[in-house]
Amino acid sequence: MDNVLRMSNIGKCMYDLYMQHYHGRLPVSQVIQAVFDEGNRLHELIQARPEYSKAEKEIACEIKTCGFTIIGHADIVSVHKVIEIKSISKMPSRPIDWHIRQVTLYMHALNKTNGVILYHQKSDGKELSFPVAYSSFLALECVGFFEKLHYHIQAREEPECFCYKPFVGDYCKLLPPKTWD
User: Which pTM was predicted?
Assistant: First the structure.
C-alpha cells in the first residue's frame, strides 16, 4: 500500500504513520475495539435520521497527487455540504484542528465548499455542530502533509516525531518502546 494513504490520518504523527507503514499497527485492545464499535454504531444511527434521508452516506473520496492517492470516506454528503460525525468523551468548545483538516480534505476531494463537524458526546448524547468553510490553502497544506509522508516512505527516511500528549501513536518517541509480545 505504498501508494495509498488515508485522509483520517491527517491528525496523526508523521513518524508514527511511517513506522506503521513498515512495522504494521500494534494490536488494538478489546476496550479500544469496543470504543471503535460504539462509534460505528453511533454513525449508523445518525446517518439514518430523517434529515439525512436524501443525503449520501460513507462516500468514497480520493485525491491523486505525486504518484499516490489519499483516500477516505465522508460520513454524510448532501448537495451543499459534507458532514463529519465525531463521537467524543468531552464536548469541545470549538472544532478540533485535525477534524477541520479531515473534513477539508473531504470537501477538496468532493468539490464542496461547506462542511460541518457534528460532535456527539457519548456520555449523555448531547450534540454540537460547527460549520467549516472550505479553504484551498488548508486543503493544500493537508495534501502537502501526505506528500511529505509519502516522500519519507519512498526514501525510507524517518520523519520527525511531533506527537503531543495525550494524543500519541503506537510508535511515538514520547512513549517507552513497544514490543510484539
Answer: 0.89
